[in-house]
Amino acid sequence: MPSRPAPPSSDLLARFAAIVGGRHALTAPDVTRPYLIEWRDRYEGASPMVLRPGSTAEVAAILKLASETGTPIVPQGGNTGLVGGQVPDESGTEIVLSLGRLDRIRAVDPAASTMTAEAGVILDRIHDAADAADRLFPLTLGSQGSCTIGGNLSSNAGGTAVLAYGNARDMVLGLEVVLPTGEIVEGLRALRKDNAGYDLKQLFLGTEGTLGVITAAVLKLWAKPKAQEVAVAGVATPADALAALGLAKTRAGAQLTAFEIMPRQLVEFCLRHQPGSRDPLSTPAPWYLLVEVSVGTGPAEAHALMEAVLEDGLAAGLIEDATIAQSVAQAKDFWRMRHGMSEVQKHEGGSIKHDVSLPLSALPEFLTRATEAVERLVPGCRPVPFGHLGDGNIHFNVSQPVGADKAAFLAGWEAMNAVVHGIVTELGGSIAAEHGVGRMKREMLAGVRSPVEMMLMRRLKATLDPAGILNPGKVV
Ligand code: FAD
């Protein structure tokens, strides 16, 4: 890692500002602050300038100048990342490169089922543009009103649709990328088959802005389901939830498009802090499942399929109670509760997070052991694990004991991480499932990747970014 450079001189800052035009080079502290602080307030950095380029050529000119002058650059999309990857450090030497002005949808091709969009397009807009072409872009996240497609691809975002459609990585055909040295990789190909040499786009998907800046992407679109049905079901244990998932897969196959799990405690948090929320079940259950099926035929078929999925679970004694949404509005309410699970924890004081994935068969054991371990570590703490049961990704979050001191509880973040991640690793899981490594988990990476894998990552970084200017101190 190169030594930390001095803050850029005012002359150098003027050269950067000239690339984007003064109006798009932000320096006033009240204007730059939102770019320096992350959603959870866990990291607050400092920066002499936020640059907002309006074209790929401007991004290239910025990175070329940065490489020549050794100026560190931190790419940022919607600033919703949860591992501190998009915010600068506290040194005041790093310039933020905000991609928000690259916000054009360049083309939509319904026949080929593709869309070409610039990095700064908000995910909600991608959904709307696909919908207008009678197509679906399935990536679905709680942050979709603010996060950008460039951020989604750079972090290989997951979300609630992975079970049926895969991660962000699986939804892209081609990329336009600016290398740290300023060259542009013109890879906006819309091919479903292309084995001509290395698949270079993979270097930039999920590498969290450390190897290049994504400026545009060709995205895959899917046929829009003709009808969907959403239900909430109550189960007694995670093992029952897992068995119910197995039955649902057998019954619905690829038409099972979401299978999420939430503990009763989090439903109670929602009832307390999410205005207008109601318990979806008449009899409260220890665990709640949100199940979605999507069909290409019509509402009657979707309803019949959901009924069959729930009946299978009821007949096997796995599901205790269930409610199928009676309207689009009620289905949205079920999803609002699920997507509000991170937000409502903020109202209950400090919360220590773990974004982990496990082999599905190990999930019940993980939940039992991790819950017991954190309760031993901090008596009275409230584990609230929730997430994407269908793909094995659990957000093992732990809320502070009622009435405890928030700062004192959060001071135990690393100690609790060590305990939970130890169990994850023992059971063959990952300590960074969908949010990535960023700054938060950088020190942990060498503990879960072999020396050879670490060497390869460092060599790739040194090859693509010889001056070490792009997102330094993140991931590797
Ligand atoms: P940012 O936060 O701005 O950046 C994320 C990373 O990508 C940083 O390392 C940054 O340097 C880099 N980056 C950004 N843009 C570019 C670019 N154009 N080129 C190169 N590097 C770039 N994540 C999930 O995976 N699944 C979820 O279900 C999920 N739910 C969430 C719910 C909430 C309420 C919140 C706040 C976050 C959630 N997240 C989730 C995390 C986050 O929203 C995603 O990681 C998202 O993909 C980040 O997009 P962004 O545009 O905000 O990127």
Question: Could you characterize the architecture of this molecule?
Answer:
- Its cofactor is FAD.
- Residues 43-224 form the FAD-binding PCMH-type domain.
- Pfam families: FAD-oxidase_C, FAD_binding_4.
- InterPro entries: FAD-bd_oxidored_4_C (IPR004113), FAD-bd_PCMH (IPR016166), FAD-bd_PCMH-like_sf (IPR036318), FAD-bd_PCMH_sub1 (IPR016167), FAD-bd_PCMH_sub2 (IPR016169), FAD-linked_Oxase-like_C (IPR016164), FAD-oxidored/transferase_4 (IPR051264), Oxid_FAD_bind_N (IPR006094).
- This is FAD-binding oxidoreductase.
- The chain is α+β, with helices and mostly antiparallel strands.
- The chain has four domains: 10-101, Uridine Diphospho-n-acetylenolpyruvylglucosamine Reductase, domain 2; 105-223, Uridine Diphospho-n-acetylenolpyruvylglucosamine Reductase, domain 3, CATH 3.30.465; 227-342, Alpha-Beta Plaits (2-Layer Sandwich); 349-435, Alpha-Beta Plaits, CATH 3.30.70.2740.
- Helix content is 35%, strand content 20%.
- The chain has 16 helices and 19 strands.
- It has helices spanning 10-20, 29-36, 56-69, 123-132, 149-154, 162-165, 238-252, 264-273, 299-315, 328-339, 341-345, 363-377, 406-410, 413-426, 442-448, 451-464, and strands spanning 25-26, 50-51, 73-76, 95-98, 105-109, 114-118, 135-136, 172-178, 184-187, 213-220, 222-223, 227-235, 256-263, 287-295, 319-324, 351-352, 355-357, 382-388, 393-399.
- The protein has a five-stranded antiparallel β-sheet. A four-stranded mixed β-sheet has the order 1-2-4-3. It has a four-stranded antiparallel β-sheet with strand order 13-14-12-15, sandwiched between helices.
- β8 (172-178) and β9 (184-187) form a beta hairpin.
- The termini are close together.
- The relative contact order is 0.12.
- The mean pLDDT is 96.
- Residues 39, 74-82, 85-86, 99, 119, 141-143, 147-148, 150-152, 154-155, 157-159, 208-209, 213-214, 342, 434-435, 438, 471, 474 line the site of flavin-adenine dinucleotide.
